[in-house]
Amino acid sequence: GFLAGLAHLNSPSLTGVAKDVYPSLLGSLQYAAVCTRPDVSTALSILGSAQASPTEAHLQALKKVLRYLHGTINMRLTLGGGMDHSLQLTGFADADWANDSSTRKSRSGYLFTLGRGPISYKSKQQTCVAQSTCEAEYYSAADATKEGLHLRQLMGEIFNSPITETTTIWEDNQSAIAYSQNALVSEKTKHIGLKWHFLKDHVEQGTIKLRYLPTDQMVADMLTKPLPGPALARHRSAILGGQDPMQRFIP
User: Fold this and answer.
1) 5, 48 in Cβ contact below 8 A?
2) 156-191 tens-digit pLDDT
3) In what order do the strands lie in the sheet with 167-171?
4) Looking only at Cα atoms, what is the longest distance across the chain?
5) pLDDT tier, 83 (very low <50, low <70, confident <90, very high otherwise)
6) What gap in Å lies between CA 43 and CA 39, rounded to an integer?
7) In Å, how far are 37, 83, 85, 175 from 42, measured between CA atoms?
8) Helices and strands, number each (H, E), in the chain
9) For 9-26, what is each residue's pLDDT tens digit?
């Protein structure tokens, strides 16, 4: 993977020209990730956290991302759904759990499609430490809900008509789905802050609906952690080049 070399703790810090090159190269690659290549978002988000004190291993990882993009240069986002495909807003939300060894914070990832095309995606480290996979996934679903509400409002303004149909967000953690429906209260979840419970409110109102999708079919998985090559290629093919992740994965 892109970040395999980061495990070498004795990698020397960058100095001189190399230290100046790192933020420049990182910024160029982040521009590509934000505009058209969600498949490298997670790697660049992690590498961006080392911008203040990058090492040789970080620079080599950036070069791997650059070579990967060069080798897949023909892949791109394709917007719209065509005449035979409804422009339905659909979300995918996922999270890892405590994979950052220094902070023990989890990473959230979400992706929204309109028809066949991804229109919004993000990979970000969570601001608080989740004490369980359920909690990490619930925070991720809440972040996705915020973005989904924004996109619903934006679509309403564009089409000059409020969006009344429920927006589905696919999630691969059954406990987080149950908790969003007030069906689960336990020692592991009762401490979750009130600011996250707006998700429950919108589920109750019918604005947002969380539905289960198995982990191996969850395209947002690549926005939560570096994936091995076959898994990355599988999810990448579902969201780049005009394919439909819903049609590909969901019966």
Assistant:
1) no
2) 999 888 888 999 999 999 988 988 887 555 555 566
3) 117-125, 107-114, 89-95, 167-171, 208-212
4) 58
5) very low
6) 9
7) 11, 33, 30, 25
8) 8, 5
9) 578 888 889 889 999 999
